[in-house]
Specification:
Layout (H helix, E strand, L loop, with lengths): L7 E4 L2 H12 L4 E4 L4 E6 L3 H11 L8 E3 L3 H7 L4 H10 L4 E6 L16 E5 L4 H10 L3 E2 L14 H8 L5 E4 L10 E5 L3 E5 L5 H8 L32 E3 L9 E5 L14 E3 L6 H17 L4 E4 L8 H13 L2
Parallel strand pairs: 1-8, 2-8, 4-6, 5-9, 11-14, 12-13, 12-14
Antiparallel strand pairs: 2-3, 3-7, 4-7, 5-6, 9-10
The chain binds adenosine monophosphate and magnesium ion.
Length: 329
């Protein structure tokens, strides 16, 4: 991590909003208020910016992130809304409700932001500063809470500053937030499911739906807080091919996912080879991780041999996801 960035803290006004949008467009990291908590924003379509975001938060795992958009129409460009989702969006957006929906065919959000899943979490926040930044930027913005991993969520610019000064580009100070807890997350699939309780009470959602929300079939994963549910709600991306970690050779019928040099016994017979980062850069490797796993899987290899990836920096999160991919669904 390049700690020692000069983090600007500016009061929310028109000029700051314009600067925030420019910063996002250049791949920068901008903390801004939403009505739930302060979010750390990055361009959802820019994998390098998202890798920087995980690095700045010090997250040991690539949790899927929520894509924030300015209005429902923008949400419909990245996610497929069924009638239930449309009903919830009409009732509660803008507001502290996140919907998890299938991605659209041409969804521009980076694989790294959705952790390789076919579903995407979408929200239209209500805070006027968040809305102004989204409008000025014009695209989806991922914005997990603007704190170091493991710390409490920030409800003021000062909280953000104490965790992230020197690690991000800009903090937009819009005063204290009003809701103070994360958004409620509802998965809209066969039956709407409450994936995470939050700022919008369950009862209000059930009143609009006219029926109770299902609970996830199992409790959330202890490590990640992500729902563990079969089928559409698989908590992590796993390829069809077997994944063999810390490989020292490539066996017959295997593809190779390399890191650093491609050199390895058996590599000439590999069914396919892709390199997460030939120069051994962990941020670059993060941006390629899910896309390359998918690409190798689609080439029909029996198994994917994965070279060891160092465990420092984003390596910890990369190894976490590789381990889950190796466990299967
Ligand atoms: P936050 O930390 O507030 O940004 O919320 C991110 C959380 O949203 C993740 O930890 C997941 O619990 C949830 N989430 C995001 N995307 C998905 C998805 N595609 N499927 C299920 N849950 C998701
Ligand atoms: Mg958080």
């Amino acid at each position: 991590m390049k700690v020692g960035l000069k983090t600007q803290i500016w009061p929310a006004n028109e000029a700051t909003v314009a600067a925030a949008a420019r910063c996002l467009a250049e791949g920068g990291l901008v903390a801004f208020p939403t009505e739930t908590v302060y979010g750390l924003g990055a361009d959802a379509t820019n994998p390098a910016a998202i890798a920087r975001l995980y690095e700045a938060k010090g997250r040991p795992s690539f949790n899927p992130l929520i894509a924030h958009v300015g209005d429902t129409a923008a949400g419909e460009r990245i996610a497929r809304f069924d009638p239930t989702a449309t009903k919830l969006a009409e009732a509660f957006w803008p507001g502290p409700l996140t919907l998890v929906l299938p991605k659209t065919e041409d969804c521009a959000v980076a694989d790294l932001a959705t952790a390789g899943l076919d579903t995407i979490a979408v929200r239209v926040p209500a805070h006027p500063v968040a809305r102004a930044i989204l409008r000025a930027f014009g695209g989806p913005v991922v914005a997990p809470s603007a704190n170091l991993s493991g710390h409490v969520s920030p409800t003021s610019a000062a909280h953000v500053q104490s965790d992230l000064a020197g690690r991000i580009d800009l903090i937009v100070d819009g005063g204290a937030v009003t809701v103070g807890v994360e958004s409620t997350i509802v998965g809209c699939f066969d039956a709407p499911i409450l994936l995470r309780p939050g700022g919008l009470p369950r009862g209000e959602i059930e009143r609009v739906l006219g029926r109770p929300l299902a609970r996830p079939p199992q409790d959330p994963d202890q490590d990640t807080g992500q729902p563990l549910a079969p089928g559409m709600l698989a908590s992590h991306y796993a390829p069809r091919a077997q994944v063999r970690l810390n490989a020292e050779t490539v066996e017959a019928g295997e593809a190779l996912l390399a890191f650093g040099s491609n050199a390895m016994p058996g590599v000439d017979a590999a069914t396919a080879v892709m390199n997460l980062s030939a120069r051994g850069d962990l941020n670059e490797a993060a941006t390629h991780l899910f896309g390359y796993l998918r690409a190798l899987d689609s080439k029909g290899a029996r198994a994917i041999a994965v070279m060891p990836v160092p465990h420092h920096g984003l390596g910890e999160a990369i190894n976490d996801r590789l381990r889950r991919a190796a466990m299967g669904r």
